[in-house]
């Protein structure tokens, strides 16, 4: 009963390959027609999938820190999402070749004309940016590797010490992940608008990663269930997963509004420059659309316990949230990195390509270990989860 | 003349659940369960799930509408002052006020509704069915159905610690 390993189906692998092919075509088309837009899209999709992968690992660590029993059954799913991080690291390193296209401060002669960027030069320069990028990933991957290692060791040996090791590294990861992912999001996304800053930005993006990480976990579980795995997952598990979405939707709305209200109220030109194109300019539909998709709809739908635990509702809301995450990052990156609002084959094709790559990597990681962890001390509790 | 009720005493909520399921299957008329802590399964079997959350939603919506009306009246209609060049009617700062008043009104009104519905108030003397209900014991109360002896038998069989008759 418990020995099921996940084996990806052949036609699924083929589908992912086709998606990656579409992505490659989109990148080639992009580089032929509009280089800047393509680099901005590469950053968008890198960040999109790194966000989800980080969210998965943060979810995984939270379960250990809080000694949660209910999630032991499907803990391999968030861990598999984190399996994308090494690929994400390589893709982020490739951004080196496109830095001046996306980041204003990386342009060679900008310091001569722009006093403010010249002032920020000691921090905002290409070598230091790359050093920080490598440092972040070294930390994420190093501790992430330890989490994976002890999870696999526990599969082989029924020894409580591996569980305690896992918990120790989960505690490390939650700090490293939360603090350095906040820094990373400031580095990668906030410096696009290099004249602007928000102290809330990093925290908000860390919360975003946990929000959409939960949505991705729900989608993965629902998919695996439709394939005949995870038969033991019951109403109570879905109830708890739904609560994750509901709570994070509240936090998301709260932080969204805090960042907006303070800048709106202070009305200082250096700061309102960020919201001007988004709140009043041509990006207005995306601005409000994002708010509806990411906060209003999940909040209202998930408010009722009875509605929120239905798998169909969870499927709809989680899929909607993945669109919402794209809009969220699109709105954070594009006005600064590219300028005019454009949406076409490049955006869709590249997202599909990255999604193919992401799913391929995640399902490969999922297939490498037992789908249900063996010897997990809380497994019995998780199998009989009941609220 | 008041009829006596059947009262079954359970130390274990698992046994109580088993007994309740069997009584439900036989369509026995239940009155109530008294216990030291809430259990969702018992509530479900009694079909006594709380409707209080719906009242909370109604109070919350009412608070939002009323607070918005009040703010709109004071700052736009009655006493319009321009602060820092902002438009007279600006929604963002209202959100904070509406948010907090919504929480305050909902909390207080929900507490009051609960007390009104359950007919309890500060200083009301408590009359538990048995002192041990505040400790570790559940009490299942049913009225005399058409087959009291059979019901008592079922209760004994399912592990009731004591089955008595009592006027409540």
Overview of this protein structure:
The complex is a heterodimer of chains A (387) and B (168). Chain A is mainly alpha-helical and 387 residues long. Chain A has one domain. Chain A is built from 17 helices and no strands. Chain A has helices at 10-33, 35-65, 76-82, 85-94, 99-102, 110-113, 115-119, 126-156, 160-188, 201-226, 235-266, 269-280, 284-301, 305-308, 311-337, 345-368, 379-383. The longest helix of chain A is centred in the middle third of the chain and has 32 residues, at 235-266. Chain A is globular and about 65 Å long. Chain A starts with 9 loop residues before the first helix and ends with a helix. Chain B has helices at residues 13-25, 40-45, 52-78, 92-118, 148-157, and strands at 5-10, 30-34, 138-142, 162-166. The interface between A and B is small, with 8 and 9 residues.
List keywords for this structure.
heterodimer; A: 387 residues; mainly alpha; 17 helices; B: 168 residues; alpha+beta; 2 domains; four-stranded antiparallel sheet; elongated
Short description:
The model of chain A has no long low-confidence stretch (mean pLDDT 91).
Topology:
The complex is a heterodimer of chains A (387) and B (168).
Chain A: H1 10-33, H2 35-65, H3 76-82, H4 85-94, H5 99-102, H6 110-113, H7 115-119, H8 126-156, H9 160-188, H10 201-226, H11 235-266, H12 269-280, H13 284-301, H14 305-308, H15 311-337, H16 345-368, H17 379-383
Chain B: E1 5-10, H1 13-25, E2 30-34, H2 40-45, H3 52-78, H4 92-118, E3 138-142, H5 148-157, E4 162-166
Antiparallel strand pairs in B: 1-3, 1-4, 2-3
Number of strands of chain B: 4
The N- to C-terminal Cα distance of chain B equals 12 Å
Helicity of chain B, as a percent range: 40-55%
- In DSSP terms (H or I, runs of 4 or more residues), the helix count of chain B works out at 5
SSE string of chain A: HHHHHHHHHHHHHHHHH
Shape of chain B: elongated
Tell me the span between the first and last alpha carbons of chain A. Answer: 24 Å
Q: Structural class, from helix and strand content of chain A?
A: mainly alpha
- Spatial arrangement of strands, main beta sheet of chain B: 2-3-1-4
How many β-strands of chain A, per DSSP? 0
Mean pLDDT of chain A: 91
Please mark out the parts of chain B with pLDDT under 50 across 5 or more consecutive residues, or reply none: none
Structural class of chain B: alpha+beta
- Rg of chain B, rounded, reads 25 Å
Number of structural domains of chain A: 1
Detail the poorly predicted runs of chain A: none
Helical percent range of chain A? Answer: over 70%
Largest β sheet strand count, sense and barrel closure of chain A: none
- Shape type of chain A: globular
User: Quick one: biggest sheet of chain B?
Assistant: 4 strands, antiparallel
Greatest interface (CB-CB under 8 A), with counts per chain: A-B, 8 and 9 residues
């Amino acid at each position: 009963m418990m020995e099921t390993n996940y084996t990806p189906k052949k036609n699924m692998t083929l589908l992912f390959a086709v998606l990656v092919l579409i992505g490659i075509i989109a990148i080639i088309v992009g580089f032929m027609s509009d280089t800047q837009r393509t680099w901005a899209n590469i950053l968008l999709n890198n960040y999109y999938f790194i966000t989800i992968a980080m969210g998965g690992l943060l979810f995984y660590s939270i379960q250990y820190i809080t000694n949660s029993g209910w999630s032991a059954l499907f803990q391999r799913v968030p861990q598999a999402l984190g399996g994308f991080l090494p690929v994400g690291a390589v893709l982020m390193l490739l951004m080196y070749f496109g830095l001046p296209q996306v980041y204003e401060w990386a342009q060679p002669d900008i310091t001569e004309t722009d006093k403010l960027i010249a002032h920020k030069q000691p921090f905002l320069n290409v070598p230091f940016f790359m050093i920080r990028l490598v440092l972040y990933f070294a930390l994420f991957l190093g501790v992430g590797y330890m989490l994976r290692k002890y999870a696999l060791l526990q599969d082989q040996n029924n020894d409580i010490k591996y569980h305690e090791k896992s918990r120790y590294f989960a505690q490390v990861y939650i700090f490293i992940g939360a603090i350095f992912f906040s820094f990373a999001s400031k580095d990668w996304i906030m410096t696009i608008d290099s004249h602007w800053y928000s102290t809330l930005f990093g925290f908000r993006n860390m919360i975003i990663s946990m929000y959409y990480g939960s949505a991705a976990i729900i989608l993965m579980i629902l998919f695996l269930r439709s394939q005949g795995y995870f038969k033991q997952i019951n109403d109570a598990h879905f109830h708890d997963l739904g609560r994750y979405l509901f709570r994070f939707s509240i936090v998301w709305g709260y932080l969204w509004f805090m960042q907006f209200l303070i800048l709106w109220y202070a009305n200082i030109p250096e700061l309102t420059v960020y919201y001007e194109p988004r709140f009043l300019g041509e990006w207005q539909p995306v601005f409000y659309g994002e708010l509806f998709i990411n906060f209003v709809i999940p909040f209202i739908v998930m408010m009722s316990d009875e509605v929120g635990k239905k798998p169909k509702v969870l499927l709809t809301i989680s899929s909607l949230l993945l669109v919402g995450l794209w809009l969220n990052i699109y709105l954070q990156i594009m006005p600064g990195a590219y300028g005019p609002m454009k949406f076409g084959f490049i955006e869709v094709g590249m997202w599909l390509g990255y999604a193919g790559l992401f799913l391929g990597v995640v399902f490969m990681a999922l297939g490498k270990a037992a789908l249900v962890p063996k010897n997990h001390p809380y497994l019995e509790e998780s199998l009989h989860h009941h609220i | 003349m008041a009829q006596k009720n059947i009262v079954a005493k359970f130390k274990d909520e698992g046994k109580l659940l088993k007994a309740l399921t069997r009584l439900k299957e036989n369509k026995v008329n239940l009155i109530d369960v008294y216990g030291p802590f809430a259990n969702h399964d018992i509530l479900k079997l009694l079909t006594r799930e709380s409707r209080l959350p719906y009242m909370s939603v109604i109070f919350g919506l009412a608070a939002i509408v009323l607070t918005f009306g009040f703010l709109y009246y004071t700052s736009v209609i009655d006493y319009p002052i321009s602060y820092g060049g902002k438009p007279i009617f600006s929604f963002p700062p209202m959100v904070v006020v509406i948010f907090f008043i919504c929480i305050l009104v909902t909390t207080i009104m929900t507490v009051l509704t609960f007390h009104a519905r359950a007919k309890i108030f500060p200083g009301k003397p408590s009359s538990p069915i048995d002192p041990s209900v505040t400790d570790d014991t559940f009490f299942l109360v049913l009225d005399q159905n058409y087959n009291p002896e059979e019901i008592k038998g079922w209760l004994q069989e399912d592990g009731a610690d004591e089955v008595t008759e009592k006027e409540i």
